[in-house]
Please model this.
Amino acid sequence: MNILQICNKPPFPAVDGGAIAMNNTTQGLLNNGHEVTVLAITTPKHPVIHDSIPKEYITKTNFQTVFIDTSIRLRDAFFNLFSKKSYNIERFISVNFTKQLQKILLHQEFDVVIIESLFVSPYISTIKSLSKAKIVLRAHNVEHKIWERIGKNTKNPIKKRYINLLAKRLKNYEIEVFESIDGIAAMTKVDENDFKNLGFKKGIASIPTGYILNVKEDSKQTEEKDSIFHIASMDWLPNVEGVDWFLNKVWPLITSSQNQAKLYLAGREMPDSYYTLNLPNVHVVGKVKSAKEFYLSKKIMIVPVLSGSGMRIKIIEGMALGKVIISTTIGAEGINCTSGKNIIIADSPQDFAKAICTCLNNSDYCDSIGKNAQDLIATEYSNDQISRKMISFFEDLKAVD
Model:
């Protein structure tokens, strides 16, 4: 098959969960003998770093990008209130991107066009006007669900009302998109069921992100004792919300009994306010050179996500590296894991703190959870296995007139 993959940010280098998911799709399709063209939006938050992209990748994918300034502008956001359009989506619309997409479609025929996230769906009409390809929404999340959950956790009444408005408009837009696509590749079974409940009746499958398996690494030689870590892109609101909850509600419970414990906060776009935190044994690292090396250097991974949707790629990465992971139910949503076997689920501050303290005091327990997590990824989430499922889904869609 000849496949066009349209991305809302550069998938390479894979610097966050969304980019990792997109890049794994690209690599899986290429490894299975299919042709892939990648067209990506670059933004102020997600620029393209040409020097870090191998020539082989550019050649294999005919990698192309178009810059769109998606910065939030108060004036635009204000006037958007008087329309019925989703401001989240409007920021990704660009004449230049449309022209580049038209150029590609006029010179190539595609069997499938992958729309990576709802944010590039405004270009579906352009695709349909120039191509007979099947259009598949790769739904990384149920976008409106994220904002509904954030709104539910928001205390400020004015902010809460605005967030609920964003959620309502995103929901309406998601439902409108159903009519113009041929299928949805959802990240999780939970998301698949959500889309069905919203009225989507065409081809749909839950296809998680895979992990590109390498030779197993022995993390025990490099782990720092009594270390706890969080790593995530901190330009995503649910990550900030979760870390704030952990720092305010959970960390005081841990430090009161575990004075030796150290917490490390890593990730790109770290808010400036975190660097001035005056909390015991909290180390704000920010962006790290190698995420894998950072994972391997620490012992206990936390995923305190309270909102969100879709699948946490960082959990898949942590599991593959044998980390013991403590997550909320929402954080682990969509991953076929079992609390107490290959992950630990805790939703209240008390349970979260208790789980961390148990892990700090029982190294064998940590090792057992981490080993089982590693086995889970090897058996259910290898990228080759996931890619074959994706290809099969595309072939089924193509068979439908």
In short: The CA atoms of residues 38 and 206 lie 22 Å apart. The chain has a mean pLDDT of 91. The longest helix spans residues 157-177. The radius of gyration is 21 Å.
